[in-house]
Amino acid sequence: MALSDLQIQTLARDAVQRAAAGDFAGAEPLLAQVAEARPNSGQALHLLGQARLKLGRIAEAREPLERAAKFLPKEVAAQVNLAGCLSLLGDHTAALAALDRAHQLKPGDAAVAHNKGRALEAMGRLDEAEQAYNEALSIDHRLMPSLSARANLLATRGDWMGALTDLEMALTNRPNDPQLRLRRGDLLLRQGDWLRGLSDYEARLELSGERYTPDLPRWQGEPLTGRLLIYPEQADIESDAALRDTLMLARGVDGVVQCAPRLSDWLDMPTVRRGAALDEFTAAAPLRSLPYLLGWTLDALPSPGPLRATTQASTRVGWFTDRTPPDGVEIERRPEQVAACCLVVGDDVWPIHLAARLGLPTILLLPAGADLLWGPQPGAPPWYRSVEILAAGDAASLAARLASTSRS
Question: Cβ-count burial of 131 within 10 angstroms (0-12 exposed, 13-18 middle, 19+ buried)?
Fold first, then answer.
């Protein structure tokens, strides 16, 4: 049964009121009825698409938004919302076309220029993306999304100073924004600037996420009358990240390390399992906060300390990477047998840190964007004396290094 004009007007009014109140779930079926009754109404289709976007029904939003853009060819918002939907669906080429139409309708709009930058960046057209962000910032030099996005692009290219400048500008608007502070800390630490970077890196603890925190006061470096608990902040204490953080960072402090059972027999220091009673402890600190709390520098890191194990002479090579091992080499893949290897090769995984703490010759294959705590130095890292860092894709250097080992 066809709806009367009065019924359509009533439905539209109720839908708009619900949407204005944030009740998009209630507004969407009403807008769907209006769009069905008035299939050529660009405004109804536009509102329906927006409601579905708000509800996270991205694929269903596409059809009404595409129709709305056709019926409202001179409305910038219709083109921009369609572009946003298409970007979420991964159709960045179509999104860019919609944004070009929006730019023609409203040249000099910072938001349109920024969104063009996002689409171009997703398509891998990074030079054009940077130009679009530059245009957006020439219109509004404090536009947060463009400052943030351009900082990412510049950092990817190795333009650390340019990236930091953008982040500093963004932080003048939001000085306490933990995401921005964390990103600035990341950039500084990757350059080896621990003096400035470590305090920003602590902003990670302000962000929501799956992180373990014991029910104890957080230690801030003050003298304690009781025992200090140091712990990996990963929710899964058996994860590779938690195991490697424990081996890398449990050093230079008089504390009890909370660790996975598989590490407690290796570490030559007091340990406690997660889930055990913590009544005897006065405060706690995450392992990744120790460099900040204790004032570590890459030039003067505390010794990692010994493990409860001794190395054994053998010809086996520990192999902890997906790369194909060379022919004719006896490979060992079991972490518990690391101490019986003459050389250990692998990615940034916990058996590599185990080998390093044992003082075994170790080749670490680090990709671009590796853990920022490694710092910028090539060759021998400051964390372990026996480790040599190679770029993850440097197959020639790895082959030469293995060949020299086999000859010796």
Answer: middle
Is residue 86, in this structure, part of any structural domain at all? Answer: yes
CA distances from 96 to 43, 100, 297, 373, 376 (A): 22, 6, 46, 38, 37
291 forms beta bridges with none
Half-sphere exposure of 186 (CA within 13 A, CB side): 17
Cβ(117)–Cβ(92) under 8 Å?
no
Rounded-to-integer distance, Cα 377 and Cα 371, Å: 13
**Whole-prediction pTM value?**
0.81
The HSE-up count of residue 93 (CA atoms within 13 Å, CB side) is 0
> Is residue 288 domain-shared with residue 366, that is, in the same domain?
no
In a domain, 196, yes or no: no
* CA–CA dist 335, 351 (Å, integer): 6
Q: State residue 363 phi and psi, 5-degree precision.
A: -110, 120
DSSP annotation string for 152-171: HHHHHTT-HHHHHHHHHHHH
The total domain count for the chain is 3
| Domain housing 243 | 210-308
How many CB atoms within 10 Å of residue 1? Answer: 4
Question: CA–CA separation, 38 vs 294, rounded Å?
Answer: 68
> Of the candidates 385, 343, 346, which has an alpha carbon nearest to the alpha carbon of residue 244?
346
Nearest to 356 by CA among 395, 295, 397, 309: 309
Residue that finishes a domain, picked among 107, 127, 146: 107
Q: Could you tell me if 387 and 381 are in contact, meaning their C-beta atoms sit under 8 angstroms apart?
A: yes
φ/ψ region of 35 (left if φ > 0, alpha if ψ in -120 to 50, else beta) reads: alpha
* Judgement on whether residues 5 and 29 belong to the same structural domain of the protein: yes
pLDDT of res. 1:
61
Indicate whether 332 and 235 sit together in one domain. Answer: no
Does residue 333 share a domain with residue 295? no
Give the separation between CA 246 and CA 271, rounded to whole angstroms. Answer: 11
Tell me, yes or no, whether 148 lies in a domain.
Answer: no
CB 283 within 8 A of CB 229: yes
pLDDT digits (tens, 9 = 90+) for 89-139: 999 999 999 999 999 999 999 999 999 999 999 999 999 999 999 999 999
| DSSP 8-state assignment for residue 374 | G
Torsion angle (degrees, nearest 10) of CA 233, 206, 137, 91: 60
